[in-house]
Amino acid sequence: MNTADRDHAIGLSQAALRAAHVNPDTGLATDYLNHFNEVAMLLEMLPDMPDCVDDVLAWTPRGYDTHFEATGHSHRAVVIAAWRAAPETVRDQLDALIAAIDHTIAGLQARVRSGDACGAAEGARLELAPLLASARGLVNGDPTAQTVPDTLF
């Protein structure tokens, strides 16, 4: 089934997908990545803004559905329906990337807890940023988006 037929079958018009900021080819919304981008930004700022420590340590992982339910996104029903209708390979790739991102953030939080704000900031740039770039590429349908390196686990 092609993308247009799939979206039509689940009642998702191209206009609804555009309004919800869902890529019609992948069925994914970049808004989900904001959950990770925020903590990445805070981690990078830590050496200069140590008062961000509590926010960094308070961050917890959230799955795709959970994120949109928790944020009250105005188009959450469309976003979640599109996610559920997205190609399984795309969902699996995103799940793998998110698992790697969550794992990386947990490691960076451990550095923060140990007092290594500079190491955590460097890790955010060197370890987390490439994973987030891959996730953005996947969400946006970039065929060059990389999968998760096996060395992460």
Index terms:
153 residues; 8 helices
Structure description:
64% of the residues lie in helices and 0% in strands. The radius of gyration is 17 Å and the shape is elongated. The chain has helices spanning 3-9, 14-19, 34-45, 53-58, 64-71, 76-85, 88-113, 117-139. The protein has 153 residues and is mostly helical. The model is unreliable at 5-9 (pLDDT under 50). Helix 3 runs antiparallel to helix 8, helix 5 (64-71) packs antiparallel against helix 6 and helix 7 (88-113) runs antiparallel to helix 8. It starts with a helix and ends in a 14-residue tail after the last helix. The longest helix is centred in the middle third of the chain and has 26 residues, at 88-113. It contains eight helices and no strands.
Question: TL;DR of this structure?
Answer:
This protein is mainly α and 153 residues long.
